[in-house]
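Here is a typical protein record:
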Amino acid sequence: MKNNAKGITLIALVITIIVLLILAGVTIATLTGDNGILGKANNAKIENEKAEIKEMLSLAVNTIAIEQGQKQDSLSNYYEDKETFIENGKLDTQKYKVNDYQYDGENKIVTITMYKENGTKNQYEYEINLKTGSIEFKNKGEIVDPNKANKISYETNGGSFAEGTNVVTEYKKGDSVGFISPEKEGAAFDGWYLNSNFDGESINKTTKDMNGDITVYAKWVEETDSNYFTYNGSTITGFSDAGKEAFKEGKVKTLVIPKKHGETEINAIGSSAFENCSTDKNTNKIDIEKLVLQDNVIQLNNCTFKNCTSINELTMPISLDTVPNSNYVTFEKCNAITNIKFTKGTGIGYSYGNEGRIEYTPWGISKANDIKIELEEGITSIGNNTFANCTGIKNLSIPTTITSIGTKAFYNCSNMVGKLNTIDNVTSIGDEAFKGCTGINGTLNIPTGMKKINKYSFEGTSIEKLVIPDNITELDYGSFANCVSLKYLSIPISLDTIPNSNFVTFSGCESISKVRFTKGTGEGWDYNNSWRTQYTPWYISRNNEMSIILENGISSIGNYTFYGLGNASFYYTGTQEQWDAITKNANNTSINNITCNYKEWYYIGGYKWNVIQKV
């Protein structure tokens, strides 16, 4: 009997375990899976995040339309890049992260990918139709970490990097990382491409929209046979008989000056060496269309390429003087050029003595064309007057290695369009460097390595937002005169904005509606009298409804700084107690009513609210 009882008990135990497992399976199935309790809860979170982000994007689109007072389909310039959209749409990028941003100017479509910080670890892609303002959900995926280091691989195609070259092999999304040029015996480097077929345009650095691992491919052009030339020592003097025959047969359509002839390094090209290398209807020869002068060429002479009227693409060292004699112009009548690549040469851009000489450069002669300018990584300076009055320049790629931009370097390049996004490492910008560049727009962040902004350096540009960091201690006169599109200004309170009242720094800047004062040295500049203060940018724009924000850390406000600003509203980011401790010198009656504890925005349910406390 005892054995039977034990058997029955064991069977009952097994049955109980089986029943429990079945019940557990039912419970797990109920909890998990897309239709389970947990799955449904997660899906609800996802749908909530999608709705929150769409609602916030809708609010941003409406904010831009309302604040700019324009029709939706005329607001595309506020969407052209991520930073401008975030700023003008007042997106909360602390709570919601933008992982990707693409602007399709032709179809006026923005594709934006966002995720919620501390959310479900999903990211959501939306399309904003700028013609209608509609927002459409497109896709969902797992978050790509924006801080992830992406790999850069270089396919040099037989080339190599010079010994000691610092080749960057990683980048993060949003970084601008330059690609150093390799070397190859018997060939000239012709650019990096994102595909092995060399389709599309060449690139010299990562762009802010790139993400993920990339491979760049080196393109090369073979040097022209050194036996095609005659020589006087290290100077090419013209075509040899073999060269003349090759030219007639169309074999020199691309002319690449070789580095060497035998053991002799070539460093110069003589007077009239290739003069009249243009179409000859009697011989049907093919013209030189592409000219490559490698870094070994350090001297050109009179009429070297005169009448080479078919050259449309030019590669040359930026350190090379193209106008050794303006009476006998080196590139006379070479007016078909549309693409110029500057290699680094010595790294230091040649400085032309005056803007009049630029008329005789190949880009000055071709300025009636639309010209693309590309500057190689490794170039450290752009010389005086280099591109002055070159109205044909529309596209310009400035390398990350540039530290100095010379006087009148881009003076009156009125068709050069876009933001100055890659000047972070610049420490010096010369007088009138960008004067008259009316196509420069968007936000201008003055580099933190600079100490002084020189006279007329940005006069007449179309910048809308100007950020002057605390390291700037001097403004020269006329620096931002006639920047009539300027609406937002961030500036140290210790900086004198009126170094010369005869040549007012912000003359004509009458559209400013928001000024943010950073602390600078902490001590506010003393304007002494009402006559001087009338030339400050905030007084010049006094007829606008203006917000003036003073940052915590300011220790004093100088005489007459805020005199006569009846239309301004004042805000302070510190507490009332900190505000009371600031020394407020005479004739600043406009700040008698100020809002303390000011934070520009915080968010509840996707909407923005001011956080303020009146004094």
About this structure: Residues 37-68 form the longest helix (32 residues). DSSP finds eight helices and 34 strands in the chain. The helical segments are 2-31, 37-68, 82-89, 241-248, 362-365, 530-533, 537-540, 576-581. The chain has a mean pLDDT of 87.
